[in-house]
Amino acid sequence: MKIGSVSFVPSVVKFFMRRILIATSNPGKLRDFAGAAAAHGVEIASIPNFSSLPTVVEDGATFEANARKKAGAYSRYAPGEIVLADDSGLEVDALGGAPGVHSARYAAEDPEKAESNSGDEANNARLLHELKNVPEEKRTGRFVCVIAAARDGKILGVFRGTAEGVILDSPRGSNGFGYDPLFYFPQIGKTFAELSAQEKAQYSHRGAAFRQVLEWCRAGVGSRIS
Predict the structure, then answer these.
(1) Which residues contact residue 61 at a Cβ distance below 8 angstroms, ignoring those fewer than 6 apart?
(2) Phi/psi at 8 (nearest 5 deg)?
(3) For the segment 149-196, what is each residue's pLDDT rounded down to a tens digit?
(4) Quick one: which of 64, 105, 204, 223 could link to 111 by a disulfide (CB 3.0–4.6 Å)?
(5) Catalytic residue IDs
(6) Torsional class of 29: left (φ above 0), alpha (ψ -120 to 50), beta (otherwise)
């Protein structure tokens, strides 16, 4: 079955979830998911003891590959539960789509081989340096988020959301994380870091992908609630 362009396995979703487990300990991501879920009465929680679990290496060439790998692996630590994992990042047109899947490690000397994430401030500094001589009209880009849902190691569905914007030459706002202070969203005249979690959920790539997850849940169950 498909929702739009998203394929999934309907038989495994037998009820609409009131709680969704997320395979992350990133407070920014958890805040984004919670903002997107709040209007739907859904609770967002990290996998119990997530920080103590073995780290899944994100070595995929695409956001989807990394999301699938993480969801499949981490769902084995929450038997019987549907677990979501996402991979997301920034694609800048003037940089040929960089930083892309290396967004969290962009400030590293060799982002492709880096074993740990760089700090937000360092990543933003690297981005500004790379765009130093790029005129405003060519500083277009997008945030991309791919969410994979899995249970007991099996991938159940994959969902993709995007948000188109412009990269500023200096940061604005303090509510976001990652590249949010530099990502200007023309539709509302603000950066993502100038939005509340609930406002960001309306416009962000992660909010768009998560709404597809909720639609998928409902499509598989009708009105039954866990």
Answers:
(1) 101
(2) -155, 170
(3) 999 999 999 999 999 999 999 999 999 899 999 999 999 999 999 998
(4) 105
(5) 87
(6) alpha
Cα separation values, 160 from 28, 133, 163, 209, Å: 19, 31, 11, 5
- Looking at residue 199, which CATH number applies to its domain? 3.90.950.10
CA 99 to chain CA mean position, Å: 15
- The 10s digit of each residue's pLDDT in 105-132 is 999 888 777 777 889 999 999 999 999 9
Q: Which range marks the domain in which residue 54 is found?
A: 2-221
| Number of compact structural domains in the chain | 1
| Residue in the block written with tokens 């169950």 | 221
Rounded to 5°, the CA angle 220-9-219 comes to: 20
Q: Say if 44 falls within a structural domain.
A: yes
Helix runs in 61-114, H state only: 63-74
Is 19 within 8 Å of 43 (Cβ atoms)? yes
CB-based contact 191:172 (threshold 8 Å) = yes
